[in-house]
Design brief:
alpha/beta, Glutaconate Coenzyme A-transferase, 3-oxoacid_CoA-transf_A, CoA_trans_fam_I, Succinyl-CoA--3-ketoacid-CoA transferase, NagB/RpiA_transferase-like
Length: 231
């Protein structure tokens, strides 16, 4: 139901039911728009053998990178992996399984999963190692590869504002993968900066409708800068 109060008062309640071996889809891009508190709680819980789907795996000592410290991630599905030395070490040593996916394809995998579409065709990756073992079809004289959609046992998402029903708004570039991730979890947990009254949200500005959200928690955010550039 879309109309009941989905706010929980602890991270333990927010991630209740998360177990070893599950698949977790995480919103964010680099360190922008990541659900910091939810990631930290997964580390604290010690949940292991996770398959994590996200644009990248954070950095050393922050974001999803902290889940590598105790080898909690078994498999990482991502489009970019260049900011984390521990990630590199675990990949090269065979401890971490990695499935590299073109960024647009990864976004569409989440969107399609949330829409109930099991697979789609894309020209991206045709003729490269990305296409190995995947069905190929021709449309209008052009070759396309089949990509399977993605869903997760949990989706962890960060938003700017939400009401108690889970209707959410993201702020500027912190929107990134979050709306897509929010649709693709069997249980979607929304970590937000502000919880407001429903009347404070313009219905035409909602990015994620509450129908996709199971739990809402108010978080506190460090918002680290991934690449600081100064003159």
């Amino acid at each position: 139901m879309a109309g009941f109060n989905k706010v929980v008062d602890s991270y333990e309640a927010a991630l209740d039911g998360l177990e070893d071996g599950m698949a977790v889809i995480a919103g964010g891009f680099g360190l922008c728009g990541i659900p910091e508190g939810l990631i930290a709680n997964i580390k604290q819980r010690g949940t292991r053998d996770l398959t994590v789907v996200s644009n990248n795996c954070g950095i050393d000592e922050f974001g999803l990178g902290i889940l590598l410290e105790d080898r909690q991630i078994k498999k990482m599905v991502a489009s970019y992996v260049g900011e984390n030395k521990l990630f590199e070490e675990q990949l090269l040593s065979g401890v971490l399984e990695v499935e590299l996916t073109p960024q647009g394809t990864l976004a569409e995998k989440m969107r399609a999963g949330g829409a109930g579409i099991p697979a789609f065709y894309t020209a991206t990756g045709y003729g490269t190692p990305i296409a190995e073992g995947k069905p190929v079809a021709e449309f209008d004289g052009k070759q396309y590869i089949q990509e399977r959609s993605i869903t997760g046992d949990f989706a962890i998402v960060k938003a700017w504002k939400a009401d108690r029903y889970g209707n959410a708004i993201y702020r500027h570039t912190a929107q990134n993968f979050n709306p897509l991730a929010a649709t693709a979890g069997k249980i979607t947990v929304l970590e937000v900066e502000e919880i407001v009254e429903p009347s404070e949200l313009d219905p035409t500005q909602i990015h994620t409708p509450g129908i996709y959200v199971n739990r809402v928690i108010k978080g506190t955010f460090e918002k680290r800068i991934e690449q600081r550039t100064t003159r």
